[in-house]
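G., the chain you wanted modeled:
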Amino acid sequence: MAQATDSVDFASFHALTGKILRGVETVIDGKREAVELALTTVLAEGHLLIEDVPGVGKTMLAKALARSIDCTVSRIQFTPDLLPSDVTGVSVFNQGRGEFEFKRGPVFANLVIGDEINRASPKTQSALLESMEEGQVSVDGVTYPLARPFTVVATQNPVEMEGTYPLPEAQRDRFMVRISMGYPDDLAELAMLKRRELSSPLDALTPVVSLQQLSDMIAMVRGIYVSEAVEQYAVSIAQETRRDRELRLGASPRATLHLVRAAKARAALDGREFVLPDDIDALAVPVLGHRLIASARVAGAGSAFQSNSLADIIHRIVAATPVPLGAGASA
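Predicted structure as tokens:
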């Protein structure tokens, strides 16, 4: 069962997550699922990739999430001329001391917003690889630990957009979840117009969770119970993606780990202290979809079709994977 911490128990966990969700939804209209997935990623101490066309609120979602938490936040605007040292930091010679000293880059924050990450060159994109996986930065042979908790929330435009570079497989695999905002419906778009006639609702958003509370909430999510049967179910789905004929690249072991961690956070948000197969099913596409590569036949149909096809393939694999016995609250 989940272990409560001194400052955040299971009841206060739900009170705090409810405040975060309500606060973010004052800024992002009609996107409850996207907001919940974003919070799920933060609670699972993962990294979030938000992909969609310009102007649908990708950066606004990242900003609203950051403002809801009283932690250090930095923003990196990725551009073609951005250098790796602009992300991680650089060693500068101090003439007074007669030695080099390290000037920390924007990656040294609890929550890093990477805006339009796929507009930077692959070399600059790769500057985040070590920090996203190991929580540290190595410069000139010296390793610097990053603040904990540490989450990257990156936005990107579809690869069809001009001036974009596709993220390499190693970079995509480090993002726990990828979400797509989509266009708002009529009512949500009308509500957005009324709310923003005089000011931005983002200006009124204030932190509702302290850094210590967030750390305690993450620790609580880690303690959510996962039966061996549910773990086997997640492994079976991942293995099937590696055998599927319509996929050239299946899910990595890191993807399986991320799937289970995200399922723990989803279970906690749903008020449960244990993971169900339904949690795995609901997160299969957001966690696995951006890591898979379709076969040449599917890829030749175009990236928009390919994205939908990958989701269809995952749904088919999940539907065909038998749920093991005993995949409930107890093993």
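Confidence is low (pLDDT under 50) at residues 1-6.

Shout if anything looks off.
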